[in-house]
Amino acid sequence: MSEHSGAYLILTAQFNSLVTERLAAGARDVLQRAGVPGKHIEDGHVAGAWELPPVAAAAARSGRYAAIIACGAVIRGETPHFDHVARTAVDGLAKVQFDTLVPVGLALLTTDTLEQALNRAGGKAGNKGGEAALAALESVEALQTYRDRN
Fold first, then answer.
1. pLDDT band (50, 70, 90) for residue 80
2. 81 is catalytic
3. What's the pLDDT score for residue 146?
């Protein structure tokens, strides 16, 4: 990766924190391994996945962040609530990215069980937080390539 400019925000939902804190740790690990200085990695917290999009939007519009990694977990329950929260959160985070051109790494798990979520937060299916951080880093670099051409 090329030199990193700007800070990186790891925005973590506190609901399902057993999962989300592991996603955030995976994101931090990847950013550090890629050479992002610790002072350029910030932590932010929201109540749950539903709250990720507006806070990510405010952070992106601040001009302070090169990218945001959104860490959350929506685990299916017995009602359709899961579908509403998951879809709205994902769509909202996509809108932030499109509207601001600040990459948003999507570490928002939508699983049927806690076991599935834990498997994707550092278990046998890897760490989707780390994968989202890597995608965000690559997007920052790609966007910079096209911005430099103007």
1. confident
2. yes
3. 85
Using CA atoms, how far residue 107 sits from 25, 79, 98, 144, in Å, is 11, 23, 17, 22
**DSSP 8-state class, residue 48:** S
What distance in Å separates the CA atoms of residue 52 and residue 62, rounded to the nearest whole number? 15
Q: Which of 4, 45, 81, 84 is catalytic?
A: 81
Give the residue from 30, 89, 41, 99 showing the smallest Cα distance to 68: 41
DSSP one-letter string for 57-83: HHHHHTT-EEEEEEEEEEE--SSTHHH
Q: 86: burial class by Cβ within 10 Å (0-12, 13-18, 19+)? A: buried
CA–CA separation, 9 vs 119, rounded Å?
Answer: 24
State the fold for domain 7-148.
Answer: Rossmann fold (3.40.50)
Token pair, residue 117, equals: 């979520």
- What distance in Å separates the CA atoms of residue 6 and residue 139, rounded to the nearest whole number? 14
The structure tokens listed for 49 are 């996945």
The mean pLDDT of 34-59, rounded to a whole number, is 97
Answer whether 68's CB lies under 8 Å from 102's CB: yes
